[in-house]
Amino acid sequence: MLDNAIASIENLRVEFQTKDGPVVGVEDVSFKINPGETVCIVGESGSGKSVSSLSLMRLVEYGGGDIAGGRLLFDRKDSGEMDLAQVDKNLMRTIRGNEIGMIFQEPMTALNPVFTVGRQLTEGLRLHKKLSKSDAEARALELLREVRIPEPERRLKQYPHELSGGMRQRVVIAMAMACEPRLLIADEPTTALDVTIQAEILALMDRLKRETGTAVMFITHDMAVVAQMADRVVVMFRGNKVEEGTVEEIFENPQHDYTKALLAAVPKLGEMTGTDVPSPMKLFGDTSHSTDPIPGTDEPILEVKNLVTRFPVKGGLMRRTVANVHAVEDVSFTVNKGQTLSLVGESGCGKSTAGRSLLRLVEPTSGSVQFDGKDIISLNAKDMHAARQDMQMIFQDPFASLNPQMMLQDQVAEPMRNYGTHSGSALMERVAMLFDRVELPRSFMRRYPHEMSGGQRQRIAIARALALNPKLIVADEAVSALDVSVQAQVLNLMMELQAELGISYVFISHDMAVVERVSHYVGVMYLGRIVEIGPRRAVFENPQHPYTQALMKAVPIADPRRRKSEKDLNFKPIPSPIHPVGYEAAPSEYKEVGPGHQVLITDSGY
């Protein structure tokens, strides 16, 4: 290991100006990153880990931050070491993207919605590397292949909104890697991805790091990813570094209480082996919450039969439908009162579309959805509005589902005003009670969404979904963007509410360890179909379908001595779900391999 670190942060202090005076984002943080080394910065949202990386890119100033003290030393390839805190904006522009690449957490905000993917990929190459248009396009195609995007030629001509979340994130990674930077800052790059793609992207980043000697500063809250990727770990808490060490030291012998709490909150795959019903997690130092199992009932509240949802693909001069995207293909399942059915699978498998079809946020093509004795598909707009009081949705991206111009208390109160369930002081009391429920201070009621961290925003979304006392909540990746400790609290919260209020959940997720923790039943989706469904224990302890087995294999394990290598991952490319207009899909047929445990026998393409 060389002494000359590529980047070293020394005594960094960052302040933000607010109406109430300056707020310290990072108090006093120092660490180094050496060539070819991956340093993981962990901590929960609001601990200052992203602020440190944005300071190094000098982007923190654009977010109202101010580097109040400390040095940010960066070793440039040609001109040696310089303090980025002092560099002028023009030079910073040359360094950014060319010598320091950054992968942002929210791919949709990092991509420009009005330019094609190809244009955004070639822009940096033409600017920094002075490539011709055709050379840049060839390199862009090569980059998309490296990040394993299916049909890359077609993707270059598409716009960001036409890609799934996982694909958008891969485009962002390809953009960051385009100029082969000396330092790559990855801010939660795999949070929104499913296990298979996450495993591939981690292996990809690892390979690129080995081949190019790039140093990686990896910001994450996923301890399993840390175990998989890190050489050294820096643990941050409330703007300070509380512990630093090699990955083995941190996992096997954590010293600081906060690090211990962080490791205690990680749901580990296989922890629930031998139990039939989910139970909340025992958190480090938390004695106030019950950890009793939640049996639920055997009485169905939602029955879905042969659900099909397709989206038309328009083309030609007349914008006629030339093909259909078969997003959900002949899916059937039942959810019981007070129980959780989880739908898992990778992005693009149709799990979110299935969830939205249940509430008719997208109109199903055919099939039946019976909810609490009502046929949801046949309801008119007025009756559907009434039915939605009992079925709510928590979306994946809380920032997109909250109104940026409304105070949080008004957003939580809105459904109750809409349905006229509470008014006046009773309404405000209920809002305050909901804030207590999701463990947010009441002082936040007068804040706006942009003043909250991701985890706090997601809790607001949960409070809003609970406002009407629904019988069913469809939670679409509701905890995927949260950090471990908050995720554990939010999951415990959802399970406590289930135990108390008898809420049923359709829990859509790609995090297998979380699914194992919360589910009574699990359905595994692939290419629009459920390939395996059954009681949680049966699916996890005895997976029968080859796709379920591959999915289990890809789950990273929070143990640095059990790292996955690239050869463990043998994923087939996913076939296209787009079929011509007259295409007739075969019905889904299952064989029963155990009580309630069914496996698809129709050819699912895997």
TrEMBL record:
The EC number on file is 7.4.2.10
A molecular function (GO) term: ATP binding
Keywords recorded for this protein, A-Z: ATP-binding, Cell inner membrane, Cell membrane, Hydrolase, Membrane, Nucleotide-binding, Repeat, Translocase, Transport
Question: So which domain of life are we looking at?
Answer: Bacteria
Q: Which reaction does it catalyse?
A: glutathione(out) + ATP + H2O = glutathione(in) + ADP + phosphate + H(+)
Topology in the membrane? Peripheral membrane protein
Q: Does the keyword Metal-binding apply?
A: no
SUPFAM superfamilies the record matches: P-loop containing nucleoside triphosphate hydrolases
Q: What is its main location?
A: membrane
Pfam families reported in the protein's UniProt record? ABC_tran (PF00005), oligo_HPY (PF08352)
Q: Does the keyword rRNA-binding apply?
A: no
Subunit comment for this entry? The complex is composed of two ATP-binding proteins (GsiA), two transmembrane proteins (GsiC and GsiD) and a solute-binding protein (GsiB).
Role this protein plays? Part of the ABC transporter complex GsiABCD involved in glutathione import. Responsible for energy coupling to the transport system.
Please give the family membership noted in the entry. Belongs to the ABC transporter superfamily. Glutathione importer (TC 3.A.1.5.11) family.
Protein name stated in the entry: Glutathione import ATP-binding protein GsiA
Q: Which organism is it from?
A: Shimia marina
